[in-house]
Write a structure and sequence with these properties.
By secondary structure, the chain is mostly beta strands. The chain has strands at residues 6-23, 29-39, 43-55, 62-74, 77-90, 93-100, 113-121, 124-132.
Length: 137
């Protein structure tokens, strides 16, 4: 694998479909959602996945975990890989980590590793995927 970090950027569309909701009286609300995304730009791909979230009793406090399989073309290389999300919001202050699951890459994306950031501005979503991948033979 190359040590050189490459970055892919572009917009994406996301659709979240509620699957189940568990609301405890006076407690946190726990939800499960289906994820569908369409990535554009340097990553031309689709993804599907599952998200679990919990909303705290105080406005702006929540947490979520998610797994999504991304399938398409990254800088011209075809294949798939899996992203793992962990997010926490503490009274409005957010922390998000999205990591490429080790050894989840297939085909021309075998060996991919890295992390992804999500930017939300003016109601639109974009991604910044920083990754390493061995040069193609």
């Amino acid at each position: 694998m190359s040590d050189a970090l490459t970055t892919a950027r572009g917009p994406f569309d996301v659709k979240l479909t509620p699957q189940a909701v568990d609301t405890a009286e006076g407690g946190a609300t726990v939800s499960r959602l289906g994820i569908e995304k369409q990535f554009h730009g340097e990553l031309e791909a689709t993804s599907t996945g599952e998200m679990m979230s919990a909303t705290g009793r105080v406005k702006g406090s929540a947490g979520y975990v998610a797994i999504e399989r991304v399938t398409g073309t990254l800088h011209g290389r075809r294949g798939s890989f899996v992203l793992q999300h962990t997010g926490v919001m503490n009274r409005g202050a957010s922390q998000l980590t999205i990591t490429v699951v080790p050894d989840s890459g297939t085909d021309e994306l075998t060996g991919i590793s890295g992390s992804c950031g999500i930017i939300i501005a003016d109601g639109k979503h974009s991604y910044e995927l920083a990754y390493t991948l061995a040069p193609m033979a």
